[in-house]
Every structure is written in structure tokens, then in C-alpha cells.
Amino acid sequence: MALVTTTEMFAKAYNGGYAIGAFNVNNMEIVQGITEAAGELKSPVILQVSKGAREYANPVYLRKLVEAAVENYPDIPIALHLDHGDSFETCKACIDGGFTSVMIDKSGESFEKNIEITRQVVEYAHERGVVVEAELGTLAGIEDEVKVAADAASYTRPEEVQEFVERTGCDSLAIAIGTSHGAYKFKPEQCTVNEKGILVPPPLRFDVLEECMKRLPGFPIVLHGSSSVPQDFVKMVNQYGGSMPNAVGVPEEQLRKASQLAVCKINIDSDIRIAMTAVIRQYLAENPSHFDPRQYLKPARKAVKDMVAHKIVNVLGSDGKA
Q1: Which of 98, 150, 224, 247 is the most exposed place for a label (fewest CB within 10 A)?
Q2: How confident is residue 225, by pLDDT bands cut at 50, 70 and 90?
């Protein structure tokens, strides 16, 4: 099976009450861990590449790693997606380079400017059989090149979504309902504290999601910034010399609820980074004489696989849907 677009994936996910995981890839171990989990669980999967990943790993290397994954797992649908494309030129380069899906993110621009640039990308992409994700509303947080202050974030306005989709022709829409980029999604003062002393973030705005669903029936919705920042791995990072105070993410049960509604794509990046970092820190602390990268990258790869498998089964519900 060659790389596929997300069109069929999303149609099945919408009707089946589950979501497809969109996992950011930066190197070989991450690609391997994600696709091993998806392959064993028979789950469709989206491998997405950010601007930062393209600069770090080189677009050609990343594309070849994904092609290797497709060759190794021919029985599962795999899409290659550009995450947070910041310009027409970036999207064009990825479309021309073999991506099957791109995101153009002009959510920080005016409504009309967002429509204008998104439409430009859609026209170029659709002529070449590539699908386009766009965004309305602005998520707070930091992830690679995306940096938005909390006071600049804004929820998606449901009254705008239908006009936006009709005028741009985009194939899916990322909306802002309270998720956030990075490992520090919420300030402590935004959270409550449970009986175990753990920060509990504010709930997602399901009212906004449900209103968007009414205005865009059957249309695939995307959630960015949807890592849950598992506290066992945060604790491990801190235990072995790291410093991640007050790192908190989106509760998994809320993401599962969203995936049973109109959310067909859930982006997960920070959870993979944290799991890898925690395992590597532990390994190096416990094996100070080791210096072969394969020694600590092997358990790091397994941590990625285990994390993705957990998300597929317990959050996305996409296992067995390939």
C-alpha cells in the first residue's frame, strides 16, 4: 500500500466514533515506534512533520523514513502530513515532495486573510490529489515554531466555521476548544488540585465542538495540542535530573469523548517526547559507563511504541480499523 490521503480514514472514523492519531516524527526511532504499534494493532495512522522537524532531519531523510515504514507495514493506511505549514511556499514544497496531506495554519491572521491563503493552498493541493487541513481559533502554548501566549489564544467561533469551509474548500478543520501546545498546557492558577495533589486542567469546551458539528454535519474536525502529559513519565524525568514543574496536559477521557463525536484526527507529540526523554534519562543514570546510542535509543523506541499503542487503544479507539 502506498501513502494515502486522510479522506477515507476520516470518513470511516467519523462514522465509526473513533479518531486517527497524528504523531509527530523527527527521527528513525520515532517513526519505527509509531508504525510498529500501528502495525501490530491494525490501526491507520498519520505521520506528521513540523517545520522544525524538516529543518532538523532534512525533508528527504524524513520522507525516506516514512517510505520505509510504508514498505514494512503495507497492510495499514499511512498518511504523510505537514503539521502547521506557515506559508503557501512551505505547503507547496511538501505537496511537490510527496506529502499526501498538508496543514496551512493562518489562524493568527484575520478571518479574510486566513481564507485567502487557505484557498490558495487548497487549489494547488487538490489539483495534485493532496488534502488540506486548516485552522480557525488560536491555541496557546509552544511547540517547535508555534508560539502563542495564553492571552492571545481564542476559542473557535462556531458561527464562522461554515463560511470558512465553504469559501476555502478545506478538507478538515482544526478548532480551538481548550487544548494547548506543548507540555505546559495550563498554568497552575487555571487548574484545580485533586485529592492526590495533582493539577487538574479546565475541561474542554464541548459546547463549542458540538455547535461546530451542527454547522458542519459529517465534516472532520481536528484537535491540536492533545498530549495528556502522563505524570508517571514527568515524575521519571524529574527523578533522573530533569526539571518539568507543573507540566500538565489534556485528560485522556476528554479526548476519547471528542473522538466519539466529530473529531477525526488528534495530534500527539509531547507525550512521545516526554516518554523518550524519561526512559533515556533513566537508562543513562543507571548505566553511566554506556556510550553507544543504540543502547539507550532501543528502550526509547520501545517507549514510543508503548505510548502510541496506549493512545490507539485507550484514547483514539482506532485499533482494528485498518
Answers
A1: 150
A2: confident
Q: Going by C-beta distance under 8 Å and a sequence separation of 6 or more, which residues neighbour residue 200? A: 191, 192, 193, 194, 251
**Could you read off the pLDDT of 177-205 as tens digits, one per residue?**
887 766 665 676 776 777 776 676 778 89
| Structural domain that includes position 50 | 7-316
What is this structure's pTM?
Answer: 0.92
262 — alpha (psi -120 to 50), left (phi > 0) or beta? alpha
Residue 321 forms part of a structural domain: no
Render pLDDT for 78-110 as a digit per residue (tens, 0 to 9).
999 999 999 999 999 999 999 999 999 999 899
Decide if 322 is inside a domain.
no
226 lies in some domain: yes
CA distances from 303 to 155, 174, 250 (A): 33, 28, 20
Asked if residue 282 is part of any domain, the answer here is yes
Instruction: Give the CA count within 13 Å in the CB-facing half-sphere of 265.
Output: 34
**Overall size of the chain counted in residues:** 322
Q: Which residues are catalytic?
A: 83
Say how many domains are in the chain: 1
- SS3 for the chain, per residue? CCCCCCHHHHHHHHHHCCCEEEEECCCHHHHHHHHHHHHHHCCCEEEEEEHHHHHHHCHHHHHHHHHHHHHHCCCCCEEEEEEEECCHHHHHHHHHCCCCEEEECCCCCCHHHHHHHHHHHHHHHHCCCCEEEEEECECCEEECCEEECHHHCECCCHHHHHHHHHHHCCCEEEECCCCCECCECCCHHHCEECCCCCEECCCCCHHHHHHHHHHCCCCCEEECCCCCCCHHHHHHHHHCCCCCCCCECCCHHHHHHHHCCCEEEEEECHHHHHHHHHHHHHHHHHCCCCCCHHHHHHHHHHHHHHHHHHHHHHHHCCCCCC
CATH for 286: 3.20.20.70
